């Protein structure tokens, strides 16, 4: 009903069509001769009110309603010029409205990522009981993917249990273990297939947030680290969560000696993070979620300047911090992994493909081949998550063919960067 009420008010504000040709009004008695625009509006408004009340079964679906609207405003055949201008107007308004919700813009129509609301830390390292902290992830999400990688490399298993959400049809994260979005990716770890909510038994990630002590009504993002004893969200910022997983669960980890943030590299790691987050991790989103040409142009420029700089750096350094694989690499990897399949196409990061940066591509494959990383990489879930769910960016819902660079056979080709990974991870 809300649709009809909204439609009624939209119709009453329709501008006059800028075409001299007004087709006859279509009624149940046939076509009447040249009604005025006002007559058309009145008729639509009356019908909308009927649809809202006594005769609510008049349209069986929104598509039916739109057809009705078109016929009554313009007759059976909408003149092409009018069709284009009306659809453009309606679509642009709808698009801006949806984008403002999906990606709140700044005054300059640039995307500004909302800050994470929960930044708690453990009272002290090794204070956690097995199972006390629960990790919520979704494999499509690059931020959650970071946490799945560190969880896997540290081999935290069920010491820090995981629940895996999938995007629901309304765009909210939900728990639907039967959803087959992961089914084609044979390499994905069993524990990372979609699950029920294993900690709280909720249907939506949003419900988990709402259920926390004191309630919560804000954005319900993944990843999220939940404290099962205190019944509250402890942290929902991926850059914190990977640090916590790296250093605070060593008493429970099967690979406690792996340190992805060694003390002597901390300042280098921090410098890379400060460069990579705005320009690359969030940079691709600033391209895809830009709501003006200027905002997009500036995001693309900083993204590709940053990629050029990294390409040059990686010519002489296996990882960001020389031969040591660190959390900074984890953060960069999840963006690079999605680059050619998603960001280059859907987010218009189109200047150059990752495939055309030999060092970055080799680096990405090098990390993919570290034991414990590939099993967190689910390209099917990623393709589904972006192309089917980000409706304002891909309203037709059609997924492009997966670029060869993103299939697992090509990801497993030799990367020709020295064999340090086995030493680092030691699995
Ligand atoms: N700063 C957060 C960002 C997480 C984030 O934006 N996650 C997205 C999925 S990729 C999400 O859950 N969005 C849902 C929403 O914004 O309502 C982090 O790094 O953890």
The gist of it:
By secondary structure, the protein is mainly alpha-helical. It has two domains: 101 residues, no CATH class; 293 residues, Glutathione S-transferase Yfyf (Class Pi), Chain A, domain 2 (Up-down Bundle), CATH 1.20.1050.
- CATH uppermost class of the largest domain: Mainly Alpha
Spatially, the strands of the biggest sheet line up as 4-3-7-8
How widely separated are the two ends? 58 Å
Poorly predicted sequence stretches spanning 5 or more consecutive residues: 1-27, 51-56, 420-427
**In which range does the helix fraction lie?**
40-55%
Principal-axes shape call: globular
Query: What integer value in Å does the Rg equal?
Result: 26 Å
Order of helices and strands: HEEHHHEHEEEHEEHHHHHHHH
Task: Please report the number of helical segments.
Answer: 14
At CATH level 2, the architecture of the largest domain is Up-down Bundle
- Total beta strand runs: 8
Biggest β-sheet: count, sense, barrel?
4 strands, mixed
What is the CATH topology descriptor of the largest domain? Glutathione S-transferase Yfyf (Class Pi), Chain A, domain 2
- Overall pLDDT metric: 85
Count of separate structural domains: 2
Distinct small-molecule ligands in the complex: glutathione
Structural class: mainly alpha
């Amino acid at each position: 009903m809300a649709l009809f009420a909204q439609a009624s008010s939209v119709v009453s504000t329709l501008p006059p069509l800028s075409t001299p040709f007004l087709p006859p009004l279509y009624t149940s008695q046939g076509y009447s001769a040249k009604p005025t625009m006002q007559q058309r509006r009145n008729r639509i408004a009356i019908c909308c009110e009927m649809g809202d009340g006594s005769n609510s079964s008049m349209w069986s679906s929104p598509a039916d309603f739109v057809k009705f609207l078109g016929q009554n405003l313009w007759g059976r055949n909408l003149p092409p010029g009018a069709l284009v201008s009306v659809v453009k107007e309606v679509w642009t308004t709808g698009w801006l409205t949806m984008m403002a919700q999906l990606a709140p813009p700044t005054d300059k129509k640039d995307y500004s990522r909302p800050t994470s609301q929960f930044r708690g830390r453990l009272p002290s390292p090794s204070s956690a009981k097995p199972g006390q902290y629960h990790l919520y992830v979704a494999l499509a999400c690059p931020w959650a993917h970071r946490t799945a990688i560190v969880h896997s490399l540290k081999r935290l298993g069920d010491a820090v249990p995981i629940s895996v959400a999938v995007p629901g049809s309304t765009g909210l994260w939900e728990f639907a273990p039967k959803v087959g979005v992961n089914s084609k990716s044979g390499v994905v770890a069993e524990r990372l297939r979609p699950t029920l909510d294993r900690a709280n038994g909720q249907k939506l990630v949003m419900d988990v947030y709402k259920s926390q002590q004191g309630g919560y009504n804000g954005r319900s993002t993944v990843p999220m680290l939940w404290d099962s004893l205190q019944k509250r969200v402890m942290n929902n910022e991926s850059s914190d969560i990977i640090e916590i997983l790296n250093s605070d669960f060593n008493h429970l980890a099967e690979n406690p000696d792996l340190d992805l943030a060694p003390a002597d590299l901390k300042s280098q790691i921090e410098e890379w993070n400060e460069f990579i987050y705005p320009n690359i991790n969030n940079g691709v989103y600033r391209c895809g979620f830009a709501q003006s040409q200027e905002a997009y142009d500036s995001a693309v420029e900083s993204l590709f300047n940053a990629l050029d700089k990294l390409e040059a750096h990686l010519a002489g350094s296996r990882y960001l911090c020389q031969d040591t694989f660190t959390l900074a690499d984890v953060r960069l990897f999840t963006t690079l992994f999605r680059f050619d399949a998603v960001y280059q196409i859907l987010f218009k990061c189109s200047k150059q493909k990752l495939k055309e940066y030999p060092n970055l591509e080799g680096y990405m494959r090098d990390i993919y081949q570290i034991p414990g990383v590939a099993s967190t990489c689910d390209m099917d879930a990623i393709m589904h998550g972006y192309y089917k769910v980000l409706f304002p960016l891909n309203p037709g819902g059609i997924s492009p063919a997966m670029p060869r660079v993103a299939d697992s056979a090509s990801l497993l080709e030799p990367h020709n960067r020295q064999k340090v990974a086995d030493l680092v991870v030691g699995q």
